[in-house]
Design goal:
Blueprint (H helix, E strand, L loop, with lengths): L5 H12 L4 E6 L6 H9 L4 E5 L5 H16 L14 H11 L6 E5 L1 H7 L3 H11 L7 E6 L2 H8 L12 E4 L17 H11 L3 H7 L5 H8 L10 H9 L3 H12 L5 H8 L3 H13 L3 E4 L11 E4 L2 H9 L4 H5 L3 H8 L4 H20 L9 E9 L4 E10 L5 E8 L7 H14 L4 E8 L5 H8 L4 E4 L5
Parallel strand pairs: 1-4, 1-5, 2-3, 3-4, 10-11, 11-12
Antiparallel strand pairs: 6-7, 8-9, 9-10
Amino acid sequence: MFYCREQELQKLNHRYADSGFECVVIYGRRRVGKTALIKEFCKDKPVIFFSALNATSQENLESLSAAIFAYQHPDLAGNDAPVYPSFDAALQEITRLAESQRIIFVIDEYPYLAKAYKSFSSRLQHIIDHTWQNSQLFLILCGSSMSFMEKQVLGYESPLYGRRTAQFKLEALHYREIAAFHPDMTPEQLSLIYGITGGIPHYINKLGVRGDIDTALLENFFEPSAYLFEEPENLLKQELREPAVYNSIITAIAGGASRANEIATKVGIESAKCAKYLNVLLELGILQKETPLTEKPGRKTIYTIKDQFFRFWYRFVPRNMTAISSGRIANVYERAVKAHLHDHMGLAFEEMCKEYLLYYADNLPIELSDIGQWWGTDNAARKEVQIDIVGSQTESSEYLIGSCKYRNEKIGTDELDLLRHYANVFGKGSKYHYYIFALGGFTEPLLECGKRGEVTLLTLDELY
């Protein structure tokens, strides 16, 4: 089934309806649904679908030749296809085929081809400029290596710079979109699936929730033969040359290290070298670099795990590896995993609340131009404080200040008092608008504060 990429699909179909040449770049992290989107778009349309190989130039030429042959002779697809003498000859054949009708030509995993045949991007640029520009060909370049696609395809120094007619960077699904996969589930169940999979469609499918989430985790996550069990390791091996080092860095961050020098010390490598590894993980979207909102990057900058799936895996799998490997995870699941799910969901819930404010909330008191966290020192109390959500508006001293509590108990007025105190410590606004998000609801006194307009109160159910 195809879910949740309706806007992208509509935009692609709108471009296809025109007769002019298109060069559309589609990229995003692995498993995010790029190929599924392309295949849905290509349904019932003439298409040459070439999935590049992480192999030699000759092997890729053979694969491209087979893709062209399959288009020309669909009844003979799978048979040995004649191999073109060169990529130029193969591209010329595609030019000939596109003379009589609009054809989609997909190059999936384009970085593999560009690395195997170094001059391919230049040759592609030449044929776009001199031949395809005036054709009705619909070219799609797709890739999972985001740094490559942004620098070597979309970047200024790329031979293909300026040739694209559109680009789509596919992100993980928003928390609300997960309901399309499981329309009968409760908001709490859906939020847990979001906190486990990070909104990656492939992982939602592989988690395979059919009844309760605990059973799905035991069968499809905490099981050595399950797809999701080895997924982080497999991804690191696919993308990186030194997966063991990157694994150690992610493990260090999952264990509480957050500053660059602290991570380097824990892993046991030089700070300069560690910085390079961290940048790669940032480019892959596994990590994120955070600075308190309104402040410039500097000594307060920290690294956290951005990818919710990685954050879940690194929290629960390594510490339970013995139980998992010996087949005894079901015996300890309640205390080793389930008892800590609400704690794990804290950061995931914060992301859900930010998404709600950015994409779904109506009638916000300010137009948000930026949103994030803030942390700093409460000099009076001599301790560090953190505000879960701070939203700002361009050229304004009004701020949205929010607290997110993924707990079963009801939240009382003490949380609003704390928010007001933290806003004073923050000290950058002339006016603050308070929001409290909670799983378990609110006490009557706090609800009265909400009725008086002192704070906006939202339960998990109200986010959906």
